[in-house]
Amino acid sequence: MQLPEDATKRAPLALVSIILPVHNAEQWLDECLMSVLQQDFEGTMELSVFNDASKDKSRAIIEKWKVKLEDSGISVVIGGHDSPSPRGVGYSKNQAIAQSTGSYLCFLDSDDVMMPQRVRMQYEAAVQHPASIIGCQVRRDPPDSTERYTRWINQLTSDQLLTQGVPEDLLFFYEHLRKGGGVFRVDHSLLLYRYHLCAATHSVLEMTIWTHRVHFLEEQILPHWKSFTIWNAGKQGRKLYRSLTAASQHKVVAFCDIDKNKIRKGFYCHEDSQERPKPKVPILHFQAAQPPFVICVKLDLTGGEFEDNLKSLHLQEGRDFVHFS
To answer: Full-prediction pTM beyond 0.70?
Structure first.
């Protein structure tokens, strides 16, 4: 068991701590840690690493870079364990935070690369927005691996950051919003996200993310609406309806769509409902439907047609609709 060095022997407290969980990351660590060394931030900076039972050469690489980083004025704190099994990225992040000294935390995954200005620009934004989580635009490697997703997250509006974001640390993100915190994005590409099959993101079940998002929708948005329309009478819209509590389902006055076949059918019947008679929700053309809307249409897949339809209704985002796509 490798423990962090005694706090009393450390350098003075850092202004920014880079939080780096590591598990079997030898393939990417050199480039990741080089990007830490190349930061143009002029304040005091610390790297807090937690090695989560790596079985490859990660530990040796970290020790090599510790010398280089500290020679350049970046203090390094290393913790970890060598148990038979890793304890997960969430546990590792928490341990790295616990052993850090920074007033501001900058999270970095071991397979990602920071642009040289990342810490500086996000620190400046954090000073201006002290109650906000600070994000940034990103690039993907390989560039075409998740082209639509990357374009989507880089173009989210301020309101959409609160309702559409799907961060890896979802529970922390939502708890931050519940306590009145905000979210601010620096509109510069400051991070290179690698897409590969071993990424921690793939270990989070899609249904887990969906369940948390639905719960947050019901907690933060739907209590302010007496009724609402689900925009999309297809698979995604019906899935949302079925995922809602009975009380929220009763607020759904209609589905809306542009598909003539769905509209011609006239209604959606919730066959799995325990209610008798089974609920039947009308399906309307979007121009005949009434706001507010929960929009379950995947953006950027209709060649602009959906966006034009939405604009034609002159709705105000946040008040008249939220996205759930």
So the answer is: no
